[in-house]
Amino acid sequence: DAHAHDDVYARAGLRRWRRCGTPSAMTATEIGSPRWLLVKTCQDLAAKAKSPDVYGKLRMAGLLRHLLVGTHALADRVAKEREATLEFWFREPPADGAAWRAADGFDASRRVMASGEQRRTGKDDLLAARVAFIGDWWTVGQLIAAIDHFYGGAPAVGLEGVSRETMLALDRAVRSGSVQVPVILQEINGVVLRALLPFADVREDAPEK
């Protein structure tokens, strides 16, 4: 099930996000720091990844969007501030949608049997990569935008080119109660948290009080 799937990340070093030296409450100065916002967002993702709650899994889409999408994406802001280059390691499934069965293995760091091309790319190529065939192919960017829109109340931005029938197919997959969509989000989450690990330790440059 999706919760058993989560244990992989607990063993894979991503627990480091839960050990970051951030306080339980942030000051006004810290809220203005892109790096501290990124760390707190990743900690929220790590907590939701560990939870068996399906609602929590769906809400990961909004956090992933905050990290990755738009002109104020936290990953971009922190990478620019740190003069760092982000690398996302994933396994993009083959273009034949009829052969797609599950998203297991999209996170290329996991040792599972999965078909597809392993890629190490920047953020834009990750967002444009195929991740799931539900009615039609969904890219990473489209999937997190749709879930954040349907179940998080976010504007319908980033869904250009997605047909109504494809959106309804995704909604049916969520409402069916299967773990298919939560597992897809877990795989994306693993890719993103691993790419952002260089920013996990903020203790050295915590904002001055």
Give an overview of the whole structure.
By secondary structure, this protein is mainly alpha-helical. Helices cover 48% and strands 8% of the residues. It contains nine helices and four strands; from the N terminus they run H-H-H-H-H-E-E-H-E-E-H-H-H. The strands form two sheets. The chain has a two-stranded antiparallel sheet. Helix 1 packs parallel to helix 9 and helix 4 packs across helix 7. The termini are far apart.
> How many β strands by DSSP?
4
Quaternary structure type:
single chain
Order of helices and strands: HHHHHEEHEEHHH
Inertia-based shape: globular
Strand order of the largest sheet: 1-2
Question: In what range is the share of β-strand residues?
Answer: 5-15%
Query: Structural class of the helices, strands and pairings?
Result: mainly alpha
**Taking Cα atoms only, what radius of gyration do you get, to the nearest Å?**
17 Å
**How many helices does DSSP assign?**
9
Distance between the termini: 44 Å
Nearest-integer average pLDDT? 83
Please summarize the sheet with the most strands: 2 strands, antiparallel
Helix percent reads 40-55%
Fold blueprint:
Layout: H1 2-11, H2 28-31, H3 34-50, H4 54-68, H5 74-82, E1 88-92, E2 117-121, H6 123-127, E3 130-133, E4 137-139, H7 140-152, H8 164-175, H9 180-195
Antiparallel strand pairs: 1-2, 3-4
Helix pairs in contact: 1-9, 3-4, 3-5, 4-7, 4-9
Tell me briefly what this model is.
With 209 residues, the protein is mostly helical. It is built from nine helices and four strands, in the order αααααββαββααα.
